[in-house]
Amino acid sequence: MMFEYFPENYPWSMAAMMAVNAGAVMSEVDEVLRDLKDVAVRNDDDANQSWQDAWSKLGERSERLAKMDVDRNRRISAGEKYLRAAIYFMTAERMGKSNSPERLVTYKKMLHCLELGTQNLQAPVTKVQVPFRDTFLPALFYQAQNTTDNSPDNFSDNSRDNSRAPCIIHFDGLDVMKEYLYLTGLSAEYARRGISTLLLDHPGVGEALRLQDLKLTPNTEEPASAAIDYLESRADIDPNKIGIAGISLGGYYAPRAAGFESRISCVVAWGSINDYGAITRGRLDGSGTNLSVSHWEEHMHWVLGTSTRDEIISFTDEMVLDEALANIRCPLLILHGENDRQIPVAMAKKTAAGTVNSPSVELKIFTEEEGGVEHCQVDHSSLAIEYMTDWVADVFND
């Protein structure tokens, strides 16, 4: 079960665990969170401001210590501290309202610290822009180990086939961004297995939403196709081994994309959302599952570009996987926790049952005995990361 620092506030407790999964240090987290226990139960604007202030304090301290390391030419230590600062700024930003100027400032601090962290550590990750419509989608490309060329030049020389690695496109969730996926070590685990990753901020999340105002589309095959077009232009990627994965609401995004984009070689649903309209209706009438962020309804309006509850319902009613699942003709892995308080296990089972034309469907439900029982294994994310990266490696090596 998930450690709940704030027993009366699920979104805060989950966010704290996400931070720990990404590399936060629990002792200093406790230092600033213990003073918030009395206000957590309120979960109002003042409480969420206190949340942002507390986590920002940690981010500023880690950033300050990183700069001191840079002055001493201690680049590795500086890089680690910058990444911790990014975690803290990211967590601070999470509970703010979309129209808060402070939220955008905090978000940009996160981007800056993550970039400085990866630069100082000389990590094999680069920021890239995926052409999309008349603009682009921001992404992080992480190089697989044992490949020699990460240039985006067109691959026309067949003698370079041995340097081409498989690649997984990772979609975000409703409120998860590419930097979180990077900080959990997900890309590094793929890379150790010879697989590159493209962590994509698609419409409705991360930079695409915050800096470009790109709203979510239920037709997630569109950004997926753009990502595949980009990867096919790279000399270091095997165009016949491109998969897709998605976390949380990405458990809708990824299977939807695989149902309508035939170039996808495998798909991972990390938390399986089969019918987001049903989830949304329950949350709006107060009978539904737990919320992931404090201002969930306001967050939905921001992500979808809606202004009324009826518009939210109309939009999410389109987010049903039934048609897409019947079209999937590549291997599918579904990861779900048996105590998922945001998405019922029944949805994962429905996704598995509906994928009737796939050559293989694996439904992995994490139990209390092994851990990882919460939403997207937030109680033990390493279990999910190890499982999915092994599975993808097996598929590509088959």
In short:
With 398 residues, the protein is an alpha/beta fold.
Rg: 20 Å
Helix content: 40-55%
Our estimate of the beta-strand percent is 5-15%
CATH architecture term of the largest domain:
3-Layer(aba) Sandwich
Taking pLDDT < 50 over at least 5 consecutive residues as the criterion, the unreliable ranges are: 148-160
Mean pLDDT: 95
The CATH class of the largest domain, by name, is Alpha Beta
Count of β-strands:
8
Output the helix-strand order. Answer: HHHHHHEEEHHEHHEHEHHHHEHEH
* Domains (count): 2
N- to C-terminal separation? 35 Å
Describe the protein in words.
Strand 5 (237-247), helix 11 and strand 6 form a beta-alpha-beta unit. The longest helix is centred in the first third of the chain and has 27 residues, at 45-71. The protein is of the alpha/beta class. Residues 148-160 have low confidence and may be disordered. Strands 1-2-4-3-5-6-7-8 form an 8-stranded mixed β-sheet, sandwiched between helices. The protein is built from 17 helices and 8 strands.
Secondary structure topology:
Blueprint: H1 10-22, H2 26-33, H3 37-40, H4 45-71, H5 75-94, H6 101-121, E1 125-132, E2 135-142, E3 165-171, H7 178-183, H8 186-192, E4 196-200, H9 206-210, H10 221-232, E5 237-247, H11 250-260, E6 267-270, H12 276-284, H13 296-304, H14 309-316, H15 322-327, E7 332-337, H16 345-354, E8 361-366, H17 381-397
Parallel strand pairs: 3-4, 3-5, 5-6, 6-7, 7-8
Antiparallel strand pairs: 1-2, 2-4
